[in-house]
Amino acid sequence: MQIHEKLKVMRLCRGWSQEEMAEKLGYSANGYAKIERGETDIKVDRLGKIAEAIGVDLQQLLNLNDKNVFNVIEGCHYDNGSHGNILLTETQCAHELEKYRLLLQERDKEIANLHQQIAQLKEINALLKANAST
């Protein structure tokens, strides 16, 4: 993963748009977008400023690799005591994805059940209306 890709992932994990990130850095939105697309070379001082805005140290940003995913979880503590930063391994991410996949399956079952109940209630309502009119 190249540095511009890491920056995009970390920004998205924060839930920030490119415009919001650019504003935090004092850059134009277009200028920051070029950084994320890898069209602009990033000097160390700019990279440090970006890391600071994201809330990580420069070394952490540079050490982030394909086996780690930067994930922001509110109220969480990382080794350095900062709030909101946690690094998950590929295995941990796979486990979290599976957990959420199962939750989504349960949600879909519940939605199907509710649709069935609505259909039954509509039938009951139609029968009651038919009986009331006779």
TrEMBL record:
Domain of life of the source: Bacteria
Cellular component per GO, a single term: cytosol
Annotated SMART domains: HTH_XRE (SM00530)
One Pfam family named in its UniProt record: HTH_3
Record keywords, A-Z: Coiled coil, DNA-binding
Molecular function via GO: DNA binding; DNA-binding transcription factor activity
Residue span, HTH cro/C1-type domain: 7-61
CDD domains: HTH_XRE
Coiled coil spans: 97-131
PANTHER family tied to this protein: HTH-TYPE TRANSCRIPTIONAL REGULATOR, METHYLPHOSPHONATE SYNTHASE
Annotated protein name in UniProt: Transcriptional regulator, contains XRE-family HTH domain
Species of provenance: Allochromatium warmingii (Chromatium warmingii)
